[in-house]
Write a structure and sequence with these properties.
By secondary structure, the protein is mostly helical. About 60% of the residues lie in helices and about 0% in strands. The protein contains 24 helices and no strands. It has helices at about 70-80, 85-105, 110-125, 130-145, 150-165, 165-180, 185-195, 200-215, 215-230, 235-245, 250-265, 270-285, 290-300, 305-315, 320-335, 335-355, 360-370, 375-390, 390-405, 410-420, 430-440, 445-460, 465-480, 490-500. The longest helix is centred in the middle third of the chain and has 20 residues, at about 335-355. The relative contact order is 0.09.
Length: about 550
């Protein structure tokens, strides 16, 4: 059956505000009326690892009966606007395009749509077997139509971003934008690729081009991720608020609610984050990232039984290494060592599975090995990752792995780069500040260490179950600063940073430059009293 490509549904005038906390279970298909008002809050991307991929739909060849749209038509309408798609509609679109390419194996447009839909299915559900299928479909589209096939090039760029292969994403995305510079659909993947490679000026240029070509909800969501990475939370909040006002479907609304929950979590607002995550699942039961977010917020609230159920549900629906790591650390904190080890074994299994499908999990694996496994193996893997794609998340993970392996002098150069706004590390991350503070502490830089550990707890007092007690314990050990200001603040950090950059025997400076040459620290000195230390936790890691 031929399916007519429809224009995006006009945005409604209602705005969805995040609901308050509720006593119900952390998951379920409930629909809250509050989830249909405007989102008040902000958006955080992910690195990562994180935002909705744009599915690239060239015009269909043929028409369809008009009337109430079915699932395929809804999927076509949504992805044509760069919006997230409900999983049942996405499955219907895949079935439709699979039937079409069987009937018309030389239909390059259908192959491109099918490849992009496979990518989205893999990204949303962690069914990574769809990634090789996506690559095969997109390359078939290019083989059928080797010239002028911007849709296939864009699809390959989005596929590479989903796999965490930012250098490949850059190559395909630039090819697509050169071929069709006025097609907006190439630019979201380019923004993510440049960010993952640490090229923030290029990311800003690509974002500016995207906003000029397509100033709609999808572009605003991309802008919010960029602004969050620069530490511009108010700008990110404004962008996601505008994007939420244009949400045309529950799946799109759920994506914004999840991103709002992520940002609320990053600033330490557990209740607001939980409200966002629950509303996201209410809007779209396929918002599996929001299930894991519920686990994170519930654990920080001390509601561990509910947190365990939420994490298990998330892993069941979307088995991702990060979820296994977080659940394992929750089990560890509860003293359930056997259960924690089972999750760590699952993490390694998921990383092996992902690697076979071309997915790069090295930053998550490196942090896991540094804290729970083999720090030397973490250093080796992350050095190679840094040479491939020297982004901020990799700089932080490599610095921490070097610290755990006993090389604090070199570690500080990478920690500085991860927190230096001048070189792209402007995100207000409690984890990055904690890592830098512990490295400085072991180097005897008491003033900077005290400042960054205090900053970590001020940014988010609940950022990590095992690391918050470690930060509190470290601050108790450091004691109060001397009257009149600590003398070690005057220049010791600068000297350590310089020597860290020069001590790089394996060439880990990569394309983005030597970490030690990053310049002065990007994090401003925290002011005001530190959070009151709680009961002593595990030794600082």
């Amino acid at each position: 059956m031929e399916i007519e490509e429809r224009q995006p549904v006009p945005a409604g005038s209602g705005r969805a505000a995040p609901p308050g906390p509720r006593p119900e279970e952390p998951s379920g298909p409930r629909r809250s009326p509050l989830a249909r008002r405007s989102l008040i809050g902000a958006v955080a991307g992910c690195a990562v690892l994180g935002g909705a991929l744009v599915l690239l739909l060239p015009p269909d060849r043929g028409g369809a009966p008009r009337g109430a749209p079915g699932p395929v038509a809804r999927a076509v309408s949504a992805v044509g606007a760069g919006a997230p798609v409900a999983l049942p509609d996405l499955a219907a679109l895949i079935d439709d395009r699979e039937a079409r390419v069987r009937a018309r194996p030389r239909d390059d447009a259908a192959w491109a749509v099918l490849g992009a839909a496979y990518t989205e299915r893999a990204r949303r559900t962690a069914a990574v077997a769809y990634y090789p299928k996506a690559e095969k479909a997109l390359r078939t589209s290019l083989r059928v139509r080797p010239g002028g096939n911007a849709a296939a090039l864009e699809g390959l760029a989005s596929l590479a971003v989903a796999r965490g292969d930012f250098r490949t994403a850059k190559r395909w995305g630039e090819a697509a934008s050169e071929l069709a510079p006025k097609r907006w659909t190439a630019y979201p993947a380019l923004v993510d690729a440049y960010t993952g490679l640490g090229d923030h000026k290029a990311a800003d240029r690509a974002l500016g081009r995207l906003l000029a070509l397509r100033p709609g909800p999808a572009a605003r969501a991309v802008a919010a991720r960029v602004y969050r990475d620069r530490g511009r939370r108010e700008d990110a909040a404004a962008m996601v608020s505008d994007a939420a006002a244009g949400a045309a479907a529950p799946s799109e609304q759920a994506a914004f609610l999840t991103q709002g929950g992520d940002l609320a979590w990053e600033r330490g607002d557990r209740q607001e984050a939980l409200g966002h995550y629950r509303a996201a699942v209410d809007a779209d039961p396929g918002a599996y990232d929001a299930l894991a977010g519920q686990g994170r917020a519930l654990a920080a609230l001390g509601r561990t039984s509910e947190a365990l159920r939420a994490y298990r549900a998330a892993l069941d629906k979307r088995p991702a290494p990060r979820y296994a790591l977080e659940l394992g650390e929750l089990y560890d904190r509860l003293g359930l060592g056997a259960e924690a080890r089972a999750q760590y074994d699952l993490l390694r299994e998921l990383v092996r599975r992902d690697r076979a499908a071309g997915v790069d999990d090295e930053p998550v694996l490196g942090l896991f090995e540094a804290d729970h496994g083999d720090p030397g193996a973490a250093v080796r893997g992350l050095r190679a990752e840094w040479r491939r794609q020297p982004g901020i998340a990799v700089a932080d993970a490599l610095g921490w792995a070097l610290h755990r392996a006993g090389n604090d002098k070199e570690a500080l150069g990478f920690a500085v780069r991860a927190t230096d706004a001048e070189h792209g590390g402007g995100v207000r991350s409690a984890l990055y500040a904690y890592h830098r503070g512990q490295i400085e502490r072991d180097l005897g830089l008491s003033g900077p260490a005290r400042r960054h550990l205090t900053e970590a707890l001020r940014i988010n007092p609940y950022f990590s179950l095992p690391l918050v007690p470690a930060a509190q314990e470290a601050l108790v050990a450091l004691g109060e600063p001397p009257a009149g200001g600590p003398p070690e603040d005057s220049g010791e950090t600068e000297g350590a940073e310089g020597s860290a950059g020069s001590d790089d025997p394996e060439g880990s400076g990569g394309a983005a430059g030597t970490p030690g040459a990053a310049g002065p620290p990007g994090a401003a000195e925290a002011s005001g009293p530190a959070p009151s230390p709680g009961s002593p936790g595990p030794a600082a890691r």
